[in-house]
Amino acid sequence: NAGVMQNPRHLVRRRGQEARLRCSPMKGHSHVYWYRQLPEEGLKFMVYLQKENIIDESGMPKERFSAEFPKEGPSILRIQQVVRGDSAAYFCASSPLEVFFGEQFFGPGTRLTVL
Amino acid sequence: GNSVTQMEGPVTLSEEAFLTINCTYTATGYPSLFWYVQYPGEGLQLLLKATKADDKGSNKGFEATYRKETTSFHLEKGSVQVSDSAVYFCALRDDKIIFGKGTRLHILP
């Protein structure tokens, strides 16, 4: 059973460009969570999604950030018009259908660098 | 609001030394408590957990006891190995998971 997969592992963007980060949850998991880790900081919750639904987006910045988890395909975290402060590691986690905010399994992360 | 505070690193120890990484929490309810480990270039892995007061979580020689009276969940290991070098995160789960800032651990051979 493959673990949580994220791609790309490293992403470089110039200011003003768009960044798209993808997350494929573990097989059988339909709950996805996105976190952001700034240098020397812990992970900060951003958003919690189920298939086709955003359950909790209380950690998402109000502008430029959006997330989706379509019926088919990976979850996407989208950052429009990136700025230097968006440089961070973005981690995705997933959990099984019957677990609500329970044990989460983390992907290896996408490290975004904004030039 | 809920929060987690853990000791700042880096922590540098010699192989076979005793390890303690302190973690205290603030929560309005009765959260579950976790320790996660992050090896270089990887995502977080659950190391151990405890879901109620006085529970002891253990895994790979690491232990932590849920102390409600001191609101603590300190991580301990009796004899560390070079392969334990990583960043360790204390976390609590109430309605969502809240992480501490992490403690980087270096084990010298």
Please state the average pLDDT score of chain B: 93
Main interface: chain pair and counts: A-B, 24 and 20 residues
Number of strands of chain A: 11
Q: What does the largest sheet of chain B look like?
A: 6 strands, mixed
Number of helices of chain A: 0
Task: Give the overall average pLDDT of chain A.
Answer: 91
Alpha-carbon Rg of chain A, integer: 13 Å
- Share in helix of chain A: under 10%
Query: How many distinct helices of chain B?
Result: 0
The 3D shape of chain A can be described as globular
- How much of the sequence of chain B is in beta strands? over 45%
Structure description:
The complex is a heterodimer of chains A (115) and B (109). By secondary structure, chain A is an all-beta fold. In chain A, 0% of the residues lie in helices and 51% in strands. Chain A has no helices and eleven strands. In chain A, strand 5 (43-50) and strand 6 form a beta hairpin. Chain A starts with a strand and ends with a strand. The mean pLDDT of chain A is 91. Chain B is mainly β and 109 residues long. Chain B has no helices and twelve strands. Chain B has strands at residues 3-6, 11-14, 19-21, 23-26, 32-38, 44-50, 56-59, 62-65, 75-77, 86-93, 97-99, 103-108. In chain B, the strands form three sheets. In chain B, strands 2, 5, 6, 10, 11 and 12 form a six-stranded mixed β-sheet that branches. In chain B, a hairpin with a 3-residue loop joins strand 10 (86-93) and strand 11. The radius of gyration of chain B is 13 Å and the shape is globular. Chain A binds chain B through residues 4, 6, 33, 35, 40-45, 48, 56, 58, 91, 93, 101-109, and chain B through 4, 36, 41-46, 49, 89, 91, 93, 95-102.
